[in-house]
Amino acid sequence: MIEEFHFHSSSEEHTIKLGELLGKLINPGTIIALKGDLGAGKTVFVKGIAKGLNVEEEPNSPTFVIMNAYEGRLPLYHFDLYRISGANELEGIGYEDCFYGKGVSVVEWADRAEEIFPESSLTVEISIPKEGENNPDKLRKLKFRGKKQWLSSFKNSVEQASLA
Ligand SMILES: Nc1ncnc2c1ncn2[C@@H]1O[C@H](COP(=O)(O)OP(=O)(O)OP(=O)(O)O)[C@@H](O)[C@H]1O
Ligand SMILES: [Mg+2]
Q1: Is the pTM of this model over 0.70?
Q2: Which CATH class is domain 3-160?
Q3: Which residues surround ligand 2, an ion (CB under 5 A)?
Q4: Residue nearest (by alpha carbon) to ligand 1 atom 17
Q5: Is the distance from the beta carbon of residue 41 to the nearest atom of ligand 1 less than 6 Å?
């Protein structure tokens, strides 16, 4: 069954906490496709996931490489596909070893290579709502979509932590 729901985040710290809760629940082989405009908060969300996986380092945008690996409760593979123009550019970099290994793969700009994502991937789309009254500039909408059984536990834990 496909789960789909969204939360709003009011600050960078809020987005980190949402990522952290997800990072705590995540299991080996999870692939997360992150989508959203420049500056939406994808890397901020990855920092939270890393925290939830007990990664000591703080991920930042991989500027010159497509992927950075971190050690944690599970290995974390942080991809950023901003600079690629299509999935063909991923041939030969061995992303499959990350995707289908025992770690967790989190991919910024997943829309650049839609076809590499298996159906079981979790998609998180972060958007910046249009500004207006009652709409502070730090507001972000995070939409979650996937087939993972644990997504409803994630939804519950966000609500219980009053982060919804
Ligand atoms: N609610 C929020 N959640 C996340 N980030 C926020 C929020 N409000 C403001 N920000 C700010 O937005 C910026 C998000 O930057 P970030 O690098 O995470 O974006 P990104 O989506 O990874 O961009 P890029 O496409 O360039 O990789 C940060 O400067 C952060 O402080
Ligand atoms: Mg980024």
Answers
A1: yes
A2: alpha beta
A3: 42-43, 61, 108
A4: 43
A5: yes
